[in-house]
Design goal:
Oligomer: single chain
Order of helices and strands: HHHEEHEHHEHEHHEHEHEHHHHHHHHHHH
Bound molecules: adenosine-5'-diphosphate, magnesium ion
Largest sheet: 5 strands, parallel
Strand content: 5-15%
Strand order of the largest sheet: 5-6-7-4-8
Number of strands: 8
Number of helices: 22
Distance between the termini: 56 Å
Radius of gyration: 28 Å
Length: 450
Amino acid sequence: MHQIKEKWEDIKEYIRTEYSLNPVSYNTWILPLKFYEIKDNTVYILIPSENSQALKYLDTKYKKVFQVTISEMFNDSFEIQFILDNSKEESEEYVDITNNINYKNANLNPKYKFETFVIGSNNKIAHSAALAVAESPGEIYNPLYIYGGAGLGKTHLMHSIGHFTLESKPDTKVIYITSEDFTNDVIESIRSGNQSTISKMRDRYRTADVLMVDDIQFIIGKESTQEEFFNTFNTLHLAGKQIILSSDKPPKELETLDERFKSRFGMGLIVDIQAPDYETRMAILRQLAENNSKKIDDDIIKYIAENVKSNIRELEGAFNQIINLSRIENTDIITLDTAEKALRNIVNQNQNELLTPDYILNIVCEEFDVSPEDIKSSRRNQEIVTPRHIFMYLCRQIIDMTYEDIAKYLMRKDHTTVMHGYKKVKDDISKNPEYASKITNIKNKINPQS
Ligand code: ADP
Ligand code: MG
């Protein structure tokens, strides 16, 4: 018996820790895998499922991981082949589902798929949960509740679940609907006063296998729609059908929502999506650049990622503005100049909002637990002098203020004290690495990409 078979559980555990997999990813994808056999220097791994989408996903995301792990643990290299439980070998053929009636009724945007969803630290739990639900709807997390600010990828994830489910089980009845459309549907059918129109509307939702309602916060408080939705929710949930909801807030913060439903919405899994960090913004921009015919330098991508931070919709907007301007200017290669011009409005807005001496002063005060009045005062005890000097230093470093302007801001007649303070911090930074890293931390707080 080969060691790989013997140590199969250890291999999975190794992957879990070495790749810091969150519990959802691990339990969905790695834990169920079984060792099958070794033949011709290939390790065959059995996926206990008939789901060809799962195979596709494991192939792209985990093949390398297994290869590397096995070579690290056993010092021996193997090919990896995932196989489905029912298949003889290899992958199933890809079926085009776009003509399928369920696909047409599902109301999905063909661009929003797992394949185009960039995973980052801001969304990785939500992404794993979405995949787990798509893999076995109605079985694990029901409902799945995704919340987060605008433009962070909630809708994209919901559509991805729809695609994945329909590609693996084309006979699933998937419905994606915005709460606005749901509301209109309910109101119109009620207004018609026609019983059969109403029951048709009910049937439409209550016979779904997977029902996704986007931006649920807009339903809450609209009485008849809310009532209709709750009844649908209960019917589906009791029948073990999958429900996926999105909102801008977690259930407990939806103010006018009934207590009963706050707890029901939380019965499955609640996950959030945060604003993307720098790495994720870079990865998303690189994906956009790859799909574009124009050549876009990494410098440009960095420039966008550094200046557009709030959400992904804005990131895409900024990217498109640059592409459009380069089209107008009729340039083949996009220069930093074009990018700066295109984003002038966005960037200035961000900086004006944030990078003022007041703002810097507030952050420094927070760090040292002193008040702005202390800093501006003439008191000379060390607990105040140190942050005062740091404030002077940061105003020069981050927003290029002159010594004179800083002195004026601090209501001092003489700017040489500012000069002295600036030099003192600069010296200390070069002498003391611990101090230097403290200053860097404060700087990052003020301007994460400075
Ligand atoms: P939300 O529903 O949270 O307001 P969307 O799902 O509509 O946000 O996302 C806004 C835009 O950003 C869409 O074009 C979407 O494709 C894109 N987007 C969001 N998250 C990601 C991601 N992780 N990877 C790639 N594109 C993303
Ligand atoms: Mg949305």
